[in-house]
Structures are given as structure tokens and as C-alpha cells.
Specification:
Layout: E1 2-3, E2 12-13, E3 19-21, E4 24-26, E5 33-37, H1 45-58, E6 62-66, H2 70-82, E7 87-91, H3 95-104, E8 108-111, H4 119-133, E9 137-142, H5 148-154, H6 159-175, E10 181-186, H7 190-203, E11 209-210, H8 220-234, E12 240-242, H9 249-262, E13 271-274, H10 285-296, E14 304-308, H11 314-317, E15 323-328, E16 331-336, E17 339-345, H12 349-359
Parallel strand pairs: 5-6, 5-12, 6-7, 7-8, 8-9, 9-10, 11-12, 13-14, 14-15
Antiparallel strand pairs: 1-2, 3-4, 15-16, 16-17
Helix pairs in contact: 2-3, 3-4, 5-6, 6-7, 7-8, 8-9, 10-12
This protein binds iron/sulfur cluster.
């Protein structure tokens, strides 16, 4: 296992090959990237580019677009040219769209071998075209669309069946000298998904794209993804992640980014340390926490800001925070590094926290 050059406790990473998705490296110790997928009709170029811009602003590093029709394929050159982040074309049924995506300048193509008819016959041609254009390919196996041959053999989409499908497709590309591949074996059950990725990680050295498919709406989908990614990334497995939520895609990026921050796999941005509230609370902790989080969301330095509902356990419990507030009797005790520096009326808490944050030099903190 290789180690990432990050401060603090460091998770070891599984060694792998590296692919380049546009300018984003995936695998071989590269920072784990966060990706999502647009929900617009791809043929609607303006709407798709608008959503890609929103995803980019939220921190998305790679974006995937669905290509179910010729109109969508025709839109790919404009989208690939104007997107600020690499665009991956997601092809399910028609090999001809793979060639269109490569010609369009997409940064990568995702194919689902279980869904592409006569895919195996086309591998030589696809490998040639992708190789000439330096376009990596993701072999994306999904439990819901497993190859019929493997379903018959295993009875259902087991971890073994998904891994066999992925490695079989890899072998077809390898026969044609093409190894610019990344793999995914997604299942809606986090336990099966974890087992599949562990198996895959042992049997190949391709970079892995993690995903719990059809994870559902938040909080269910959020928790399923966080649990599964946490286990796998904790073991060094996983090079790029996509959180699948029945929610706007920007939410997927927020969750994915926070998973990586929680594991120390990317530098933390704002961290809110807030108490859960209890019978001792003398302020609406939930409301105050939301206001503080909104006020600090774009603060240029990644601070740890505490919001505590009473003065009993305020500064003491939150002494690891850079600054914070503990409330009582309509007032807020503002503390910096565990020391109370001011007491202000409740209505002034948020602006005072911002004033204190702006007036201090945070460069020396650890
Ligand atoms: Fe309760 Fe105070 Fe602890 Fe918040 S900080 S949970 S209000 S004791």
C-alpha cells in the first residue's frame, strides 16, 4: 500500500494503475475525486451545461452525461468543449454512441457490458478508437443489468458474478492491448457492494470507481454511501466516488466531498461543531447552527466553528474549535480557542463570530 501525502492520520491506498480523465488523474495514489451525473436531457445543451456549471461550483471534478439517443450523441461535442470539468459519456445500448463520444472529445466513456448488445464483437474497434484518442473507458457493471449469461450461472447478481463480468470485459480489451480502464461493480446493498469491490481490488490493479447504485433518497442514500465508501476507502480501496441519490446532483457532490473530508482524504473546509441540544439549551440550537453554517460557508479559511446550546458545557466541550459560541439567557459567549472573548446579545451572535474570525490571524493554528 502507498501513502498519500496528507497531514494528520493517513489512510493507506491500494496501488493501482492510473488513468487520466481529462486533466483529472484517477488511481495510483492520485487524490480521490468526486463525480456526479447530470439529470437534464443531454440533447438540451444549454440546460446540461448550466447543470454542469452548478456541479463544478459545488466541487464536482468529473461529470457524466447519459447518451440514450442520437440527439444526445450529437450534443456531446458542444458539451465536451464548453464544460469546465471532464465529461464522461454514459453509453448503455448502442456501441455506435461510444464512437460518437470518442469523436466528440469526451474525457472518458462508460459502458455497461450487460446492456450493450453485441458489445463483445465491437471491442476491437472500440479499443482501437479509444487508444487513438487516449480516451479511457469505465467498465461499469450494475447489479440491475448483469449479463444474462452470469445471471444464469449465479442465479442473481452476487459479488462474484459482478466481478466476473467486469474482469471478463477487461480481458476482452486486454486481448486488444487496451488497458486504459477503470472499473465499477455497483450494487444497491452496501454489504454486497463492499464484498464485490474487495474481491475486485484483489484480482486486478485497475483504478476503481465506487458507487452504491440506487441508494435511494437522503438520508438513506447518504448513509448507505457513507458506510460503504467509509469501509472501502478505510481499506485503501477506491479512486473516484459517485454518491447516487434521488436528489439534485449537487447534493451528491456535497455528500461525496464530506465523506472524503471525514476520512482525511481531502483537506477539510468549514467544520461545524454543534451540540445536539438538550433540556439545558437556552437557545434554538438548530436555527443558530444553520445561521452560523450559512454565514461561514464561503469563509476563505477552513475554520472549525462551535455552536453550543448552553454555557455549562460550551467552551470546555468545544475547546478544539477555532472559535464558537455558547448561549444562555438571551446572550452568547463568544470564545476563541476555548477562551471567552466577548459576550453579546443573541441577535448579534452570528455577526460577532464573523467579526472575530475576520480580525484574527489563523495561519499559526495547527
Ligand atoms: Fe445540552 Fe448544553 Fe450539551 Fe448543548 S451544550 S447538549 S445544551 S448540555
Amino acid at each position: 500500500l502507498v501513502e498519500l501525502g496528507m497531514p494528520g492520520p493517513v489512510l493507506a491506498r491500494r496501488p493501482s494503475r492510473r488513468v487520466l480523465v481529462g486533466d483529472v488523474p484517477v488511481g495510483d495514489g492520485a487524490p480521490v475525486s468526486v463525480q456526479s451525473m447530470t439529470t437534464t436531457v443531454t440533447a438540451d445543451v444549454d440546460a446540461t451545461l448550466q447543470q454542469i456549471a452548478e456541479l463544478t461550483a459545488a466541487g464536482c471534478q468529473i461529470v457524466r452525461v447519459a447518451v440514450p439517443s442520437q440527439d444526445d450523441a450529437d450534443a456531446l461535442p458542444a458539451i465536451a468543449a464548453k464544460s469546465q470539468i471532464p465529461v464522461v459519456a454514459d453509453i448503455h445500448f448502442q456501441p455506435k454512441y461510444v464512437f460518437a463520444a470518442i469523436d466528440a472529445g469526451c474525457a472518458a466513456v462508460r459502458v455497461n457490458p450487460g446492456n450493450i448488445k453485441k458489445f463483445d464483437d465491437k471491442v476491437a474497434e472500440i479499443a482501437r478508437a479509444a487508444s487513438a484518442a487516449f480516451t479511457p473507458i469505465r467498465i461499469g457493471v450494475n447489479a440491475g443489468s448483469l449479463d444474462g449469461r452470469l445471471l444464469a450461472k449465479y442465479g442473481k447478481a452476487t459479488a462474484e458474478a459482478m466481478v466476473e463480468s467486469a474482469l471478463w470485459e477487461c480481458s476482452l480489451f486486454e486481448e486488444h492491448g487496451f488497458g486504459d480502464l477503470k472499473l465499477s461493480v455497483k450494487h444497491h446493498d452496501p454489504l454486497v457492494m463492499i464484498e464485490a469491490y474487495r474481491m475486485l481490488a484483489q484480482r486486478c490493479d485497475y483504478p476503481l470507481h465506487l458507487g452504491v447504485t440506487e441508494a435511494g433518497p437522503p438520508p438513506q442514500g447518504t448513509v448507505k454511501s457513507a458506510v460503504a465508501f467509509g469501509v472501502l476507502l478505510g481499506e485503501g480501496i477506491g479512486d473516484t466516488i459517485r454518491v447516487s441519490l434521488s436528489a439534485p446532483p449537487v447534493e451528491e457532490i456535497k455528500v461525496g466531498s464530506q465523506i472524503l473530508e471525514s476520512l482525511g482524504l481531502r483537506p477539510r473546509r468549514l467544520e461545524i461543531v454543534s451540540c445536539p441540544s438538550c433540556g439545558r439549551a437556552q437557545v434554538d440550537v438548530y436555527r443558530l447552527t444553520e445561521e452560523v453554517a450559512a454565514a461561514f460557508e464561503d469563509f476563505p479559511i477552513p475554520l472549525r466553528v462551535a455552536v453550543m446550546g448552553c454555557v455549562v458545557n460550551g467552551p470546555g466541550e468545544a475547546r478544539e474549535a477555532d472559535l464558537g459560541v455558547s448561549s444562555g439567557n438571551g446572550k452568547g459567549q463568544i470564545f476563541v480557542r476555548g477562551e471567552v472573548v466577548r459576550t453579546v446579545p443573541e441577535s448579534k451572535i452570528v455577526e460577532t463570530l464573523l467579526e472575530e474570525a475576520l480580525s484574527r490571524d489563523w495561519s499559526q493554528r495547527c
